[in-house]
Design goal:
homodimer, about 200 residues, alpha/beta, Arc Repressor Mutant, subunit A, Rossmann fold, two-stranded antiparallel ribbon, 8 helices, 9 strands, binds nicotinamide-adenine-dinucleotide
């Protein structure tokens, strides 16, 4: 299949192309996409080959057609649902952000161990006590987890989610997770990224 | 110098080792660090070589000594200051999180174009109108920027920060930034990470 780094770049290209459609641009060359995406025309052409798309060298790529083609890659994943665990500072920022957008996957449930937070709804997303995690994930067919709990709880909550039916986790806790080989895990370590930027400047 | 990926891993090792000190662990082998960090013993040994550190194969690494050695790498960057621009959902989550920790770099100023947000303080961090960005960055000697503004404002705010004296930026806006070669930029694209995890699971 398509490598992870290619998928990330295709998502970026699609976002840049959507911006162009709004400006009425109909055609674009690979070097123009590359300039906006801060990479090379050759990289853009290679990425589009990964989804079997080649342009007309004279005119370039038809923006609408290219967006449709990138969307095709995500077609079979259209209705995926996500759960967020840990309705704290970061969790609330993420729920507030994604509530405004028709982003995929849709965040359909949020959980917290604090009874005051694990009830009602936040930014339109139903909130549940963490004790209900297994049954809600199974009931709603949730396959993606967003982990915004403190580091000490990251592993036990992960174990719970994977048993309940989640297959992919985006982890914001600053601790590496132990997961089975079939699980898809990506980490966002904000503190480390910040320290790294500071180190090099 | 030390490559960026190595710096990220050394920051992670230090965090894991600090956790061990709290548990009273005095020595650790490279394979034990690797197991916690989800990588290989060879990778750990290579990373520690980058800071000129070798252990005693029989006993392993002395945890306290190793932490001091990793800290030495960051020594000359001890007093760096950071500014956050865009005191919205994500900006407030970041200010709230770092206020509690003696994290480096210290976030010493926050800015917003909304007059209601660009005043007073949030989580102990002084807040200013974005018009004051250039003067505050120059006055306080701020070298790191955290960008949590909407995508449309990311580039103009970046230009402003770099002119004022910032040399490194952690960008949360979902848009690639154009910066001079000397600037250090890292991006955190939460929406793309989430879409990628969903794609593969
Ligand atoms: N806020 C940031 O900008 C930021 C920056 C870097 C890293 N992080 C990491 O992101 C995670 C969340 O950070 P935060 O600032 O939102 O913390 P927070 O303390 O504000 O929120 C954590 C939430 O998780 C809930 N929780 C705790 N244990 C739980 C459990 N077992 N099951 C379900 N919910 C549980 C708490 O009740 C709380 O609502 C942490 O791991 C933190 O290290 C956050
Ligand atoms: N909240 C999230 O979890 C999340 C997820 C993915 C991406 N992002 C990205 O992070 C950024 C911030 O997102 P958010 O959810 O906090 O948005 P937000 O709208 O809640 O906050 C943005 C803040 O920036 C301020 N602002 C706007 N223009 C400015 C300017 N020129 N100078 C200074 N301040 C300015 C606004 O007044 C507001 O306070 C956006 O680029 C967004 O796409 C956020």
């Amino acid at each position: 299949g398509v490598p992870a780094r290619t998928v990330e770049r295709l998502v970026l290209y699609r976002r840049l192309l959507n911006g162009l459609t709004e400006q009425g641009v109909e055609f674009i060359h690979s070097h123009e996409i590359a300039e906006k995406a801060n990479n090379s025309a050759a990289q853009v052409r290679r990425d589009l080959m990964a989804i079997g798309y080649t342009g007309n060298p004279a005119r370039g790529y038809a923006v609408n057609d290219l967006v449709r083609s990138i969307n095709g890659l995500f077609e079979q994943k259209r209705d995926q649902k996500a759960a967020l665990v840990g309705i704290g500072k970061l969790g609330r920022a993420i729920l507030g952000y994604f509530a405004l957008r028709q982003a995929r996957p849709r965040i359909v449930a949020a959980f917290d161990s604090d009874p005051a937070k694990g009830q009602g709804e936040f930014a339109g997303c139903p909130c549940y006590p963490v004790d209900a995690l297994t049954s809600v994930i199974a009931r709603d067919g949730i396959t993606v987890g967003i982990l915004t709990v403190p580091a000490d709880f990251a592993q036990p909550v992960t174990d719970l989610m994977l048993v309940a039916g989640v297959r992919g986790i985006l982890n914001f806790a600053p601790t590496p997770l132990k997961t089975p080989a079939w699980a898809v895990v990506d980490n966002v370590d904000i503190a480390t990224k910040l320290e790294k930027v500071a180190f090099f400047c």
